[in-house]
Amino acid sequence: MADSIRMKPPKNRYLDKPRNEDWTLDQDWKTYSAEEHDRWNRLYRRQRAVLPGRACEAYLKALQALELSESGIPHMGRLSDRLEKLTGWRVVPVAELVPDDIFFDHLANKRFPAGAFIRPEAEFDYLQEPDVFHDVFGHVPLLADPVFSDFMQAYGQGGARALERGQLHHLARLYWYTVEFGLIREAGDLRLFGAGIMSSPQESVFALEDDSPNRIGFDLQRVMRTRYIIDDFQKSYFVIDSFEDLLETCYRDFGTVYCALRNAEDIEPHEIIPEDAVVSYGTQAYFQEKKRA
Ligand code: HBI
Ligand code: FE
Fold first, then answer.
1. Which CATH class name applies to 13-292?
2. What is the pLDDT of residues 235-281, one digit of tens each?
3. Which residues contact 4 (CB under 8 A, 6 or more apart)?
4. Which of 96, 138, 153, 238 could form a disulfide with 218 if both were Cys (CB 3.0 to 4.6 A apart)?
């Protein structure tokens, strides 16, 4: 009996901390333990080794500029002071995913909500919630790029409108297939820029080099119609030509885009449609093997 009532140590101690109206809280940087700092260092070292030749130039440059390294979990206030000098953005600590409207308001005001907790050892390779490594190592560096960070602010501003129109799911797909899992053309090749890939050693290789996934030229409406997978690799990755192109799509009148989407069929993650500018056709072997296993 005694065992069953012993509370499991909370996976994420920030969930019990008091938070502000805007869901931010104190990072309490001094409370990170030596093993938590060491876990960041091991995550950083492993991922850093995978990224040269795979991550886009802007990302690798920003790692230097923001002094992100294997010196333990970054202090978000000090990191923000460096980031703010470059693009005016700050990183604000949160305990977990915050409500969509809160999230969009932060982005619209150049604040990126980053998980303050670090994944437990048992989830070293993969976790669903965005922890400090996914958010700070994955998302924050590109906020140092003036064009990409303008896209993120425009996304936040668009988010509020999407909520009013009940079309958040369309906008969430844009975020998913770019900010989280986007590829970019660079030096005549493909490079990573999505945070979800950038923070995953397996997916950094899979997304660029595996024959399994489709790689398709980015098109705003097409992406907004495409369902996605949240707990595994993607069946399709979308490729942008530049952050300027991505930003330009956000300056289009989303109203007309949303109207066109109202009666457009959703597209399944593995599907290719006739209008697609296909970069490479995938075999989907990865998912077929999984089904057989
Ligand atoms: N909250 N902290 C956090 N991080 C996210 O990436 C996030 C979120 N809330 C909502 C959200 N993302 C998505 O639902 C929106 O992009 C649609
Ligand atoms: Fe993310």
1. mainly alpha
2. 999 999 999 999 998 778 788 888 889 889 999 999 999 999 999 99
3. none
4. 238
